[in-house]
């Protein structure tokens, strides 16, 4: 905290991990002796660079680009790129730190990294987004590689942006390498990658519920956000017989008391991915209530899936959810619940899954995309989905193995210890580097 006093998001993420790791570290002092913690919180490398581009009016714009290469003990750096005005080094270090544990949990050989820019893609033309992506990659390309660092999408970076980034990489490096995941199907992408984070989050919640002889059938489910993760979490909940009663964006919450139906889901996909519109338009189109400036957490529900962004669910929201009967919370987003909100859930014994476990399906499927690229073959959607499902079940089991506490499962503790052990052991074996 003394070294980087303003990096509040990063401190929050580290504190959450350390709180639950502490007793484990005391029982296993060899990790402390080797300075594992001190090394884990310091990125192996953090790159910051200028991203100049020309907008449609011919005016030169300058954004700030980053790549944080956090830890490569168990494989090449892997983690998304985020384009959002709120991006800064603190946010990316928190995301990269989380990514190290998450990637370890998937059991695939991937280290942790994260990157992005304070660029806002909202309201920009395709041409502007392309020029920005090309400029961003003109610097990033020298720091990534199929065996070095393989970025993917995140907030503000979807299929369109990955395409532009990949095109520019190929041109500069003069080779067709697997340096990005989330690619289009025509040029090396994997089936089920767009669905993976949302589906994976619901698979994880399903496992938690199963241990209590419960399921999604007939349950009211609150989802926040309306982007990639929310869209496919909603689809999987519907498939399992749950009722999706909300979606949101940074302007407010759409309430669908009767539960989202197929027609509405297809409208959502077109609205957000092709027309790039706002969720408010969906409320207007279907004459549904729209709660201006509000999050969904005060709506009575059985299951909550926060799928928008960090710190979108406060301790007060957590208490309201519990008061209204919510029994299960699985994070599709990264760190959507504040530290205090997490404490409320854990104290109440709620089935609460942190993002590093519940949203690991996205990066796991990115890992499967890398495998397919390396083998130069293409698995069917069914095959990828089955592998994703197995990975989520295995992550759940790992959390149960390490998370037992007073007859309950503390999924935060389980995910942190399970993710830590593999990375820490690899670091021990590799010496002080
Ligand atoms: P998208 O850009 O597709 O969607 C983001 C959604 O969150 C939008 O509805 C957006 O609304 C909302 N949102 C973003 N910032 C804010 C904010 N400050 N306040 C309120 N709402 C906000 O991103 P994804 O769906 O890909 O990512 C969502 C979350 O999931 C992020 O935390 C991301 O790190 C995490 N994640 C994503 C993975 C993936 O595979 N995509 C993998 C693992 C985690 P608006 O349009 O108004 O900004």
TrEMBL record:
Q: Which GO terms describe its molecular function?
A: glutamate dehydrogenase (NADP+) activity; nucleotide binding
Q: Which GO terms describe its cellular component?
A: cytosol
What residues form the catalytic site here? 114
Reaction equations catalysed:
L-glutamate + NADP(+) + H2O = 2-oxoglutarate + NH4(+) + NADPH + H(+)
Annotated signal sequence range: none
Q: Report the sequence similarity comment from the record.
A: Belongs to the Glu/Leu/Phe/Val dehydrogenases family.
Protein name as it appears in the record: Glutamate dehydrogenase
Originating species: Ventosimonas gracilis
């Amino acid at each position: 905290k003394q070294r980087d006093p303003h990096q509040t998001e990063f401190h929050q993420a580290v504190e959450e991990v350390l709180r639950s790791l502490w007793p484990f570290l005391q029982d296993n002092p060899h990790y402390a002796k080797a300075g594992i913690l001190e090394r884990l919180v310091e990125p192996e490398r953090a790159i910051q660079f200028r991203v100049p581009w020309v907008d449609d009016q011919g005016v030169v714009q300058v954004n700030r680009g980053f790549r944080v290469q956090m830890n490569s003990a168990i494989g090449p750096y892997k983690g998304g790129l985020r384009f959002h005005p709120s991006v800064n080094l603190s946010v990316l270090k928190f995301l990269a730190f989380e990514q190290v544990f998450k990637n370890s949990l998937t059991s695939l050989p991937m280290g942790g990294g994260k990157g992005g820019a304070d660029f806002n893609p909202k309201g920009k033309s395709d041409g502007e987004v392309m020029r920005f992506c090309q400029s961003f990659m003109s610097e990033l390309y020298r720091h990534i590689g199929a065996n070095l660092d393989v970025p993917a999408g995140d907030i503000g970076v979807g299929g369109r942006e990955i395409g532009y980034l990949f095109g520019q990489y190929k041109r500069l490096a003069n080779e067709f390498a697997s340096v990005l995941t989330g690619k289009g199907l025509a040029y090396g992408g994997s089936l089920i990658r767009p669905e993976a984070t949302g589906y994976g989050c619901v698979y994880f919640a399903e496992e938690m519920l199963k241990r209590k002889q419960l399921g999604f059938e007939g349950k009211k489910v609150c989802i926040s956000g309306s982007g990639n993760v929310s869209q496919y979490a909603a689809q999987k909940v519907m498939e399992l017989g749950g009722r999706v009663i909300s979606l949101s964006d940074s302007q407010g919450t759409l309430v669908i008391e009767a539960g989202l139906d197929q027609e509405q889901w297809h409208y959502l996909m077109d609205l957000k991915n092709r027309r790039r519109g706002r969720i408010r338009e969906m409320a207007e189109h279907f004459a549904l209530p729209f709660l201006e400036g509000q999050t969904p957490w005060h709506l009575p529900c059985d299951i909550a899936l926060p799928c928008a962004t960090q710190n979108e669910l406060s301790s007060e929201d957590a208490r309201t959810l519990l008061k209204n009967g919510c029994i299960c919370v699985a994070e599709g987003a990264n760190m959507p619940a504040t530290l205090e909100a997490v404490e409320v859930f854990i104290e109440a014994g709620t089935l609460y899954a942190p993002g590093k476990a519940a949203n690991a399906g996205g990066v796991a499927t990115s890992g499967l995309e890398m495998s397919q690229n390396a083998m130069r073959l293409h698995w069917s959607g069914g095959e990828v989905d089955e592998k994703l499902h197995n990975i989520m079940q295995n992550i759940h089991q790992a959390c149960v193995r390490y998370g037992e506490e007073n007859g309950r499962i503390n999924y935060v503790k389980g995910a942190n210890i399970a993710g830590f052990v593999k990375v820490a052991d690899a670091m021990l074996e590799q010496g002080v580097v």
